[in-house]
Write a structure and sequence with these properties.
Elements (H helix, E strand, L loop, with lengths): L1 H12 L9 E3 L8 E5 L7 E5 L2 H4 L2 E7 L2 E7 L10 E10 L16 E8 L4 E8 L8 E6 L4 E9 L9 E6 H9 L7 E7 L6 E12 L1 H5 L2
Parallel strand pairs: 8-10
Antiparallel strand pairs: 1-13, 2-5, 3-4, 4-13, 5-12, 6-11, 6-13, 7-8, 7-12, 9-10
């Protein structure tokens, strides 16, 4: 009975929160376990939470002014084979002008969601990007930190989606990891990125919430 009431409440709310989510961050209160990770010699992207943002439900705001950084958290005890469904709600308020992930000299994004595995000597990441000019559906590979960090990126949205409108996304991140890297990680790192250092412009975006949940819950909706 409680489960049916929960699912009914979620449906009435608009179906945006996934029932059975085993990890969720809604940015409504003080954050624990998150940290800003910067790049040497580059001004950092500014991250802050606003409890009144996103219609009063809390929001993470990322602002980059010729800057780059990620806002990351380690999910200890999370196994993506058990919770493969990544969902989130985001919007862009300003695009880095002229940015295009296909060109290393213009590789900026107003916002991207990274799921990573590894440490300081070896890291593998899947990145879901909201781009400026790169076509939706484009995929590519990038290497950073002298080859230590390898990223496979996927364009989910671009500037044709406009500004100021929230969108809910959903990906089977376990399937993406298995397809690209041949394994599914445990204890992943989830990070939010916003970059404008290559185009030397400004970018601004918001993340309302983000969660991981079992595939079975998705099938049961």
């Amino acid at each position: 009975m409680r489960r049916r009431l929960l699912l009914l409440a979620l449906a009435l709310w608009g179906g945006e929160a996934l029932a059975g989510a085993t990890w969720r961050e809604d940015f409504r209160s003080k954050l624990h376990g998150w940290e800003v990770r910067t790049k040497p010699g580059v001004d950092p992207t500014h991250y802050r939470t606003d409890a009144a943002g996103a219609d009063g439900t809390g929001v993470l705001i990322a602002e980059a002014d010729d800057a780059s950084a990620t806002f990351a958290t380690q999910l200890d005890g999370v196994d993506l084979t058990r919770t493969p469904i990544l969902r989130w709600r985001w919007r862009v308020l300003e695009y880095p002008r002229g940015a295009d992930g296909r060109d290393a000299a213009r590789d900026d994004q107003p916002i991207a969601i990274y799921v990573s595995y590894g440490g300081v000597l070896r890291q593998r990441s899947i990145a879901y990007r909201w781009e400026t000019d790169t076509p939706v559906g484009t995929e590519g590979d990038a290497t950073y930190a002298a080859g230590v960090v390898k990223v496979h990126w996927i364009v989910v949205r671009n500037s044709q989606d406009g500004v100021g409108v929230f969108h809910v996304e959903q990906r089977d991140v376990a399937a993406d990891f298995r397809r690209v890297f041949g394994f599914v990680p445990k204890d992943p790192i989830v990070a939010v990125a916003s970059n404008s250092q290559y185009t030397r412009t400004q970018a601004k975006a918001e993340l309302d919430w983000i969660e991981l949940a079992p595939l079975a819950e998705l099938r049961g909706r």
